Amino acid sequence: MSTMPDPSLMQPVIGPVELAPTWQGGWWLGAKHAHSPNFGPRPARAIIDLVVLHSISLPPGRYGGGEVQRLFTNTLDWDEHPYFQSIRGLEVSSHFFITRQGQVWQFVGCDERAWHAGRSSYRGRDNCNDDSIGIELEGLEGDQFTPPQYQSLRTLCAAIAQHYPIGHVAGHEHIAPGRKNDPGTGFLWTDVRAWPELAAWQFPA
To answer: Among residues 136, 138, 141, 173, which one is catalytic?
Structure first.
């Protein structure tokens, strides 16, 4: 039996973006920091011009337990839940993670290469980890995201745009089609495209 989505999750994000906090190197001071060991140097000539949006929840559909943070810092208890056996030993990271309440976490400095994209290709270039910034939204593919998440994403993207020469934004589904489907059909691309702070960015078709 299908259920109607919560109307509050479908409301467009409105209102001005507050002045973004400053940066310290590749670390945004508007985020809570938890350093991941899963990163490496970017190629010498890499131009950081792509933002990749993802969705994640651990186990799938469960929110707010801190499992995502523990995954990105290699401290997840693999025996805590049966699902974790399917990803046991996985070493991944994202630059940023936005919780359902809109709290922003950062795990890897943006000047470094996080391990979020995997096998990927976009705007004529392979290996999107080399020159992208990865942002994970706490959620499930096809599910709705919350207004606080969109507001935090808008503020974060505005800050990134001020600090890096971003020209493109895409979902994991666009850089790894057929392999990944996130953030999925519940993500409001039309609303995000209308944010004036991202007017210079190119969006997926």
So the answer is: 136
> Do the domain assignments include residue 60?
yes
Residue 136 known to be catalytic: yes
C-beta of residue 141 within 8 angstroms of C-beta of residue 81: no
- Please give the pLDDT value at position 18: 52
Q: Name the nearest CA neighbour of 55 among 133, 132, 144, 120.
A: 144
Burial environment of residue 4 by CB neighbours within 10 A (0 to 12, 13 to 18, 19 or more): exposed
- Write out the residue range of the structural domain in which residue 160 sits: 26-198
Q: What is the CATH number of the domain that holds 43?
A: 3.40.80.10
pLDDT in tens, 152-190: 999 999 999 999 999 999 999 999 999 999 999 999 999
- Specify the number of domains making up the chain: 1
* pTM for the predicted model, two decimal places: 0.90
